[in-house]
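Minutes, project huddle
Topic: does the predicted pose make sense with magnesium ion bound?
PN asked that the exact inputs be recorded in the minutes so nobody has to dig through chat later. Recorded below.
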Amino acid sequence: MENSKHFIENFIDEDLKEGVYDHVQTRFPPEPNGYLHIGHAKSIILNSNMAKEYGGKFNLRFDDTNPTKEKSEFVESIKEDVKWLGADWEDRLFFASDYFDKMYEAAEKLILKGKAYVSDLSADEIKEYRGSFTEPGKNDPSRERSIEENLQLFRDMKAGKYGDGEKVLRAKIDMAAPNINMRDPVIYRVAHMTHHNTGDKWCIYPMYDFAHPLEDAFEGITHSLCTLEFEDHRPLYDWFVREVGFEMPPRQIEFAKLYLNNVVTGKRYIKKLVETGVVDGWDDPRLVSIAALRRRGFTPESIRKFVEMSGISKAQSVADYAALEYCIREDLKPSVSRMMVVLDPVKLVIDNYPEGKTEMLTVPNNQENEALGSREISFGRELYIERDDFMEEPPKKYFRLFPGNEVRLMNAYFVTATSFEKDENGNITVVHCTYDPESRGGNSPDGRKVKGTIHWVDASSAVPVTVRLYENLIDEEKANEKGSIYDENGELYLNPNSLQVCNAFAEASLKDSKAFDRFQFVRQGFFCTDCKDSKEGAPVFNRIVSLKSSFVLPKTE
Ligand code: ATP
Ligand code: MG
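Predicted holo structure (tokens), as shared on screen:
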């Protein structure tokens, strides 16, 4: 990997050198309104890496100031995902809602300084008064209320004397500021709602822009790393923090979000897929929520590597899903056993093999990694092979089985196809062959060569298993042609073949695989035992990624 530092590290170095801060404190501040996705992984890994690299601390803080959309289910899933990614918050788990008292005090402080006022305008009026990029805003008629009156009204808001939307508290900054965020933003609103953490204690809630910078300040965050859309909010954040009395606001540094080409990443959009039943829950293995990636079989290491490879910068860019696939292949290639599973089985009968005989063959688990040892697999007269490994009339360059052709059964013997049987619909039901007993282990007895090697499983000990193959949820061809994954109506171009279910036969040892066990199935890809749908003795395998790759690792100087 490249050893040069990214721009955030340069800023931190500068701050430490100049004595702006003498330590580093970062945080990941999710809103618990959905599951985390691959984009969040970037933020989690960046924030926890910075803390680790500079010997600092990393907080996990739930930004739970909006009672409408938040759920405890999301809090739990987020904790699990952050932990799984290896970002350790130790004992520093915080909730913005735990600061509601302090935020309220901060708001009163602003009122007392003459820096905030209670407004009677409706949401629509506030919007109308705000002006535009080209026109300054208009002052709120309540802008010059006395401090005493404001304080009383704000206390009345808190005491429940007003209905939702009747009154708001606004910061008193500058209605003509070129940055619209500075035009007297709303900082508290009335909302008679039950909060997942504070219950019915509050009927006023702080707005995100007021709450967020204060949360960082309360926790002593030094470097508040966030995505680019918050760049314009930075002057406001600094204003709040300083006016409330913190001398040194956290330094906010913005970086570009991680996007994946032709993949649905936004929380809102994933939520819609879940709610409309296009996918089977937040952890459907076709999604890129962290829960889905984990269930599909990605490792935390592969995700960290992907995030590090995509880099940290201010320039908006889109990563390729193929790069993520590259990372998981690299991780699993040397570390998992290579098994034989036939996804679309057809019977192969070896006519000259003794009936009733079974022999055990010793095969290495992974030729690239001797430490993974070896296992015994059974071989007999009747096997299963892949339907497409036999052809009645082969095209040119087809080196697998066809009548008269000899191939190697992986780790076993050379066989030559002799004949086949068909059912009434013309489908091949059985392929017959003869084997060369001298080629045990798949070794040529006399130097003669075979061009094809195919995998198989012994029919007498094979276990029926379910194997799920995935393609992108998005119809990539369509999306590329249209230049968007959404059509005119905002609906996704969906790929009808994103899930294919195979009734496969696996070698016997796979019968007992446990949730999250990972394997290579030779010639088919890397697979993971599904944690939800597998039953004792009847595993379900998800294909994480196929073996083929079109991805080229970008050159580094
Ligand atoms: P989404 O845009 O998917 O709805 P969000 O930004 O609303 O996500 P939050 O819970 O508010 O989700 O985000 C928590 C943190 O994760 C924020 O600091 C946000 O900037 C960061 N983040 C969100 N999406 C991405 C992304 N695609 N790449 C990098 N960081 C992200
Ligand atoms: Mg958000």
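Observations noted during the meeting:
- The pocket of adenosine-5'-triphosphate (ligand 1) is lined by residues 29-31, 39-40, 42-43, 226-227, 257-258, 265-268 (CB under 6 Å).
- The domain at 7-255 is CATH 3.40.50.620 (Rossmann fold).
No decisions taken; revisit at the next huddle.
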